[in-house]
């Protein structure tokens, strides 16, 4: 037992070291820049995400500073905790040293887990709440301790404040419990206390949503109506699950699913199948299911542990292929080398959004172009006359641009950017009238429709940035409709 636990901690520590060592590579991710701004506007809700990530970013900046490596330290710690949880789940399923090692290795080197832990987003923390609930469920089943259920309520409540998709995993767990002999838990008084705790913790965000007209629902409805995300048929969705987890790792988590279906812990298999069906029915992105896989890796480790003669085969295959695939999701290679490596491997990261077609996959491409854009905006701003500068507004086309201006622009003396995109719309148009606007990602036709005169500025063409960030900066003068009157019409939630 102690030896197994020591091995689990060693894998977790290795994971932490790996992410801390690579956390300062490339640049700030688009969403990270947005979350930094959200941390400056702490609230109980935001248009497109729950509030926890803003609190984490704000805390990180206070404790560790603003460097890229500092910003990504908390996700590295989350990855450490996820590998640790995976090993503990394997142990609760009856696994020893080998089972825990194989399970931890699969999660440590899984491409989707490497990628999400490399960025300060809610995706790095979401699996902790899913797998925390699974671990507590195993404990209370094995030890018949329903008094642990209130702690499940705490995890569910905090999970909902981290990412709203927690509700789908809770639904999947409920379905799984109903399908097994554990259904009696749903009538246990401790379960009702757990539900009350979860609702209490989630209530502030629910109240915020109600007061603001349910913006997250509106945002998701717009995404669905616009067909923004890639919607996969079942077979392609399954294929992408295999790809993002490492194709050879199917030997582990696939075996784990089969093993769970035949054993007393089949409730976990039913939970996986239920959340799979929910996400598939909702046309969710391929990585939405990723937080459910650590428990399958844990079960797969237990399955392979009994094959003393063959068990080293899946471990070697997962280790070798995991290392080979790591540069595709972890920023460890110079960009030019990465492009060559992608071509040599013949593997491209699957798209999750239809419009993203860059040289790099989105998780890398969205880390490029921001310093160049801010520098170019600063050059335009300081070429304005003093009178124009005094009333100039920087109008960003999306939250990445606004976040970059607001985070990186202070050293250039830039005013805060405004935008109608996502939660920026709630933060308003700022103090200026819009008489002079520096426009980012606005078409010339739209600018000429809204301003009396338009000047064309420099072009943004950083080769590795996403295609949408290739645009000309425009300077509009003489806004035909005062900015505050126009603001209700610039809302853009997607």
In short:
The chain has 494 residues and is mainly alpha-helical. It is built from 25 helices and five strands. A five-stranded mixed β-sheet has the order 2-1-3-5-4.
What does this structure look like?
This protein has two domains: 2-328, no CATH class; 370-489, no CATH class. With 494 residues, the chain is mainly α. It has a five-stranded mixed sheet with strand order 2-1-3-5-4. The chain is globular, with a radius of gyration of 24 Å. Strand 1 (392-395), helix 22 (399-408) and strand 2 form a beta-alpha-beta unit. It contains 25 helices and five strands. Helix content is 60%, strand content 5%.
Straight-line distance between termini:
49 Å
Total domain units? 2
Number of strands: 5
Query: Order of strands side by side in the largest beta sheet?
Result: 2-1-3-5-4
Q: Which bin fits the share of residues in helices?
A: 55-70%
Overall structural class, as computed from helix and strand content, comes to mainly alpha
Low-confidence stretches: none
């Amino acid at each position: 037992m102690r030896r197994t636990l020591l091995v689990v901690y060693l894998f977790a520590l290795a994971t932490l070291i790996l992410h801390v060592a690579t956390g300062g590579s490339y640049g700030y991710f688009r969403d990270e820049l947005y979350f930094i701004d959200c941390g400056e506007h702490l609230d109980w809700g935001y248009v497109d995400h729950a509030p926890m990530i803003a609190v984490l970013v704000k805390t990180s900046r206070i404790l560790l500073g603003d460097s890229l490596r500092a910003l990504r330290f908390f996700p590295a710690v989350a990855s450490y905790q996820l590998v640790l949880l995976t090993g503990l789940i394997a142990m609760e399923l009856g696994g020893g040293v080998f089972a825990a090692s194989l399970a931890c290795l699969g999660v440590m080197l899984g491409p989707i887990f490497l990628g999400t832990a490399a960025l300060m987003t809610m995706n790095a923390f979401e699996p902790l709440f899913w797998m925390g609930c699974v671990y507590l469920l195993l404990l209370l089943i094995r030890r018949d301790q329903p008094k642990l259920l209130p702690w499940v309520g705490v995890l569910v409540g905090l999970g909902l404040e981290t990412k709203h998709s927690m509700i789908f995993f809770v639904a999947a767990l409920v379905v799984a419990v109903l399908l097994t002999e554990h259904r009696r838990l749903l009538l246990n008084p401790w379960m009702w206390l757990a539900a009350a705790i979860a609702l209490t913790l989630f209530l502030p965000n629910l109240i915020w949503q109600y007061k603001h007209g349910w913006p997250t629902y509106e945002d998701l409805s717009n995404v669905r109506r616009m067909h923004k995300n890639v919607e996969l048929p079942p077979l392609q969705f399954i294929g992408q699950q295999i790809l993002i987890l490492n194709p050879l790792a199917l030997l582990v988590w696939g075996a784990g699913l089969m093993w769970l279906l035949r054993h007393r812990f089949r409730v976990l298999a039913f939970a996986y199948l239920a959340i799979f069906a929910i996400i598939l029915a909702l046309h969710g992105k391929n990585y939405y299911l990723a937080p459910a896989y650590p428990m399958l890796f844990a079960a797969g480790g237990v399955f392979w542990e009994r094959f003393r003669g063959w068990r080293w085969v899946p471990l070697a295959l997962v280790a070798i292929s995991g290392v080979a695939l790591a540069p595709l999701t972890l920023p460890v290679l110079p960009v030019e080398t990465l492009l060559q490596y992608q071509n040599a491997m013949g593997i491209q990261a699957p798209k999750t959004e239809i419009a993203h077609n860059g040289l790099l996959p989105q998780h890398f491409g969205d880390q490029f172009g921001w310093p160049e854009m801010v520098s170019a905006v600063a050059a335009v701003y300081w070429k304005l006359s003093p009178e124009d500068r005094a009333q100039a507004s920087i109008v960003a086309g999306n939250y990445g641009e606004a976040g970059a201006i607001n985070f990186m622009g202070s050293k250039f003396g830039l005013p805060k950017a405004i935008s109608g995109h996502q939660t920026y719309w709630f933060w308003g148009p700022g103090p200026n009238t819009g008489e002079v606007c520096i426009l980012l990602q606005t078409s010339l036709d739209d600018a000429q429709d809204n301003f009396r005169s338009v000047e064309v500025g420099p072009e943004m063409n950083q080769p590795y940035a996403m295609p949408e960030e290739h645009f000309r900066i425009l300077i509009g003068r003489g806004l035909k409709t005062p900015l505050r009157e126009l603001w209700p019409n610039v809302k853009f939630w997607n």
